[in-house]
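Protein Record: Sequence and Backbone Structure Tokens
======================================================
Tokens: labelled as protein backbone structure tokens, with as many entries as the chain has residues.
Task: work out the structure tokens from the sequence, keeping to the layout shown below.
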Amino acid sequence: MKEKTKGIRRVRAMDKAATALITVGGISVILTVVAILVLIANQAAPLFKAPLKEAFKTIEAPAADQILDIGLDEYIESHFVLYKTGELKRFALDEAHTELSTTQIKPPAGATNLVSLACDRDFHYTALWDNASVSYHKVSYKPKFDAEGKRSIVQKLSTLATFEKVTVLPIKKLQVTVNEEGEQFLAALLNDQTIKLVKQTSEEDFLGNVSFNKQEATIPVEIDGRVTDMTLNLEATQLYLGNDQGEIVGWNITRPTKAKLIAKKKVAEKAITALRFIFGGESLAIGDVEGHVTTWGLIQGDEGYKEFVQQHELSRHEGPVKHLRNSLRNKSLLSLGEDGRLFYDHMTSERQLYDFGPEEKIKKASLSLRVNALIALVDSGEFKIWRLENDHPETNAKTLFGKVWYENYPEPEYVWQSSSASDDFEPKISLMPLIFGSLKGTLYAMLLSVPLALFGALYTSQFTTARVRGIIKPAVEVMAAIPSVVVGFLAALWFAPLLEKNLTGFFLTLGVLPVVTIISILIWQVLRKNKALRVVEMGYEFAILIPILIIGFIVAVQIGPWLESALFEGNLQLWMYEAEGIRYDPRNCIVIAFALGFAVIPIIFTISEDAFSNVPKNLTAASLAMGASRWQTVWRVVLPSASPGIFAGIVIGLGRAVGETMIVLMATGNTPIMDWSAFNGMRTLSANIAVEIPEAPVASTLYRVLFLSAVILFVMTFILNTVAELVRQHLREKYGRFQ
């Protein structure tokens, strides 16, 4: 008796230990999943972080009324002041505001006095001299390290270009630039309402002698009213003028002697007050007297002509826009109003990043090269410096999930294009094409896998023999063990070319196989009158149907080329494009349907077959005893009773398809397009993460957007599983009483 009591206690202790172990394991799994979600969400969260600014220093500005421009070094350790006289002073950002250096812009040969000095773009300045010569200068910073590794900042004032004796007429406005190829461009608005264009390139012979090749041209302004501003892009491909009537006129000046008018349009109700190209030189920012700040660009219009259109509207000022200044790092823009209020906006996202309120009364402002600080000359005669923190100005809900009007695009679109060979590239990080691609690939895979898996499971569990079931089910389950990389490899390098070569036969198969199946069933209705043949109906129907389907498939494939020659002039793909405008991508959704469907079938089949087999035999026996046929029993009894398991299998398969990476990575063209056509490829969220993550710098916008993609995948899977569980519970409550 004591031994029996000890045995019971031992069993109870083991039950408690097992219960505790299972509980701890379950909670650990849940906590691990939550920790993973928190981790990836934490990496994506900075994308939505509000921009921060912090007052850093306030310093008295010497000779504030003579200041032309100001700037900061990238380490925020010093700043410079450029005076209208051409004197450049550099000061340390210490308590004493120590003067570190003084430099003077040197005149070119033959010049003595400085007539005017203007800021073309950040840290670039154009000087007009008394002999009508023009010089172009740049302020730059370079870190220097001594023998002990201590860093110091060296400021340099360099001359990038010199133009000798531009014109004898008075110059009203002047713009100069030097592009990446070293070509020097000058555009001068003259008093006689013409524009003088000069392009000069330097050539060096084998002796080291430098000579200049100069091209000059004069073009009429072709605009009424008074010209209020002029701007030239960095690449010297576009030149624009604005007037006091709200009109814009622009030229392509790549070849000055053949300057081409590219834009002439009224863009504002009243006077234009400021023009400035956004970083990259494709979009033009326009400020007007009513405080509007808009960006415009050239897009491909009707009949091949380019059209000048508005693409973005940024923060509006209460009064006239006094000055515009673009960042040299991204597509952001400073706009200064007459009331001294300064806005800092990002063009692509149309986000107002900072508002330096009217209490500051800013007269001049400049960003550091890293865009991590701003220095401003305020009305009180002081310099105010702010530290800025905004690592991802191009991201918000609109750029991630909405349509955005990108440069050179004819209209707002969903676009994913994360990188380019150019530093002035406008990132296109819309996740909608990737979400769409995930849903599209999943849909096509489920269209193939769900019917095959369900009907296969239904036949295996309800119609065939136990011996056959014992062969088929393990064989299907082995399919799940095939690595997805192998499936993707075969789909990309074997199946896709085979499908492309036999596309007509594939379409013909879709019609031939159902017809062959129906005909074989009708013939069987006649043959089954022979009792000796009815043995096939005892679970071996597939032995007759499979050969018939194979024959039908072979016939369709063999007829395909003949039909293609007869109806489609020997090339179905070309006919599809010319007649219907449908492009055929060799790695398309048909390939994905077969490849991804092949990977999903075992999951749905196994779970559904178990659900069918677990329906109590007394229910099916009772139905058959009442005179119902096997199919009626399956339809009215088995399917409703097994529906919770069937639905669970489908949703688990759906989750498998949504999260699949290697198959869609290898078997599609990874083209992030939004098109339901089965003949196009797509790019899924999971494949995009695999493709992009090796090229994403840590903590960059792309890096964090990829983590956001992972969060979205996690959420999608969570929603699918939650809905599946709710529906499964509902079906169990509804049909569970029959079991």
Remarks:
- Residues 2-44 form the longest helix (43 residues).
- The chain has 14 helices and 30 strands.
- The chain has a mean pLDDT of 86.
- The CA atoms of residues 677 and 696 lie 31 Å apart.
